[in-house]
Amino acid sequence: MSRSLLLLIVILVILVGGLFLLSSKDTQQPVTTVEKVIPLDNLTN
To answer: Where are the domains of the chain?
Structure first.
């Protein structure tokens, strides 16, 4: 095997492994509801 082909295979394995690790990471945040009071003065013209 040539040296450049071996280097390409190693880089691809590292890239695929990194993508797999990032995809399996749980990053979902719970939904928080924000309620804000809107004054009625701004709604009437």
So the answer is: 3-42
